[in-house]
Amino acid sequence: MKSEYRPDTIVTHAGREPAAHHGAVSVPVYRASTILLPTLETLDNKESLRLRYGRRGTPTTHALEDAICALENSDRALLAPSGVMAISVVLMSYAEPGAHVLVTDSAYGPTRKFCESVLRKMGVTTTYYDPAAGEDIEALIRPETRLIWMESPGSQTFEIQDVATIARVARSRGIVTVIDNTWSGGYFFKPLDHGVDISIQAGTKYISGHSDLMLGTIACRASEYERLRETYLRFGVCIGSDDAYLALRGLRTLAVRMRQHHVAGLEVAQWLQQQDEVVQVLHPGLPDNPYHNLWKNYFGGASGLFGFIIHETDRKRLARMFDGFSLFGMGSSWGGFESLMTPSNPSVYRTVTSWVPSGQTVRIHVGLEDPRDLIAEIRAGFDRLG
Known about the structure:
- The chain is an alpha/beta fold and 386 residues long.
- The chain has helices at 7-13, 40-44, 59-72, 83-93, 109-121, 163-172, 222-234, 241-251, 254-273, 292-298, 315-323, 371-384; strands at 76-80, 100-104, 125-129, 145-151, 176-180, 198-202, 216-220, 278-282, 305-310, 340-344, 360-365.
- It folds into 2 domains: 7-251, Aspartate Aminotransferase, domain 2; 254-384, Aspartate Aminotransferase, domain 1 (Alpha-Beta Complex), CATH 3.90.1150.10.
- 35% of the residues lie in helices and 15% in strands.
- Helix 4 (83-93) runs parallel beside helix 5 (109-121), helix 9 runs parallel beside helix 12 and helix 11 (315-323) packs antiparallel against helix 12 (371-384).
């Protein structure tokens, strides 16, 4: 896919080759384990083949890999059956006894748990750092540091990191950088354009867009691909072609969905700022947010996920609010067409920076509904608090 095309064109066409599939507009689902090779010479040279065994990919999964490369401006891509598996493959690729990794204190919970369980058992030390660190990250680097992990914004507290500065410091020390780019969907932010080596996403979220698919994506520079692929192959990681097909279908509407999430999310966030029940709104797209300038520097827009803090903390009163919703569901994940809202406690994931809000933290995902209906439902919920 030509890199000079604009993002909306890229997500519409990336990974498509109708002429290679009898003119079919969408890549068909190839369900295959065994791939027959036509000659002994081909068998003898199978290492050079892209299509050789189902676990190593099918035309459907290869199309999605190509599309992810185009979306993230990366050289290569790998696909995993979940976002957590994508995280695990990357961390394991740089794990060795005595190694040290730096992880933002705002990281997704399972990222921390993997570091504290699997990596610790392997003799890898993890240091968590303040997500506000920029140049200061250099003071935390050790001779044995192999990896710096970022997440921007943090999916619970929504701090924006100075990605390019951290990547520049890491590159000067020969250290690989990774970012969890799920919040942007790969549409509003291109980390590799800012010096990052590896960008992962839970494709379950915005790439899928329909809350019916488990997927992880790893987009990387060519320099990191073979190392990642070795771990990937040794663990037998792969995805099914049906899931790849659903992801490709979701990708075609990514641009229009992300723009709607941006507009509707900001409308709801701005309304929340005016409500007496709300202490603070955690949305980097708001002009008074402390991370707003960094967000403007890096992002082309905002997704539908953000947070806010309300005064009320009594669980019985909170139950009256949350149990009465009909448009907002309570459940794990986000990034689908539907709106979600859950009370959260980010403090349990903090070890370097503190999270002591003056009330109850709430995480909200604004879906594709009319924001006026969502606002009316939240207002009714606040009224139920009494």
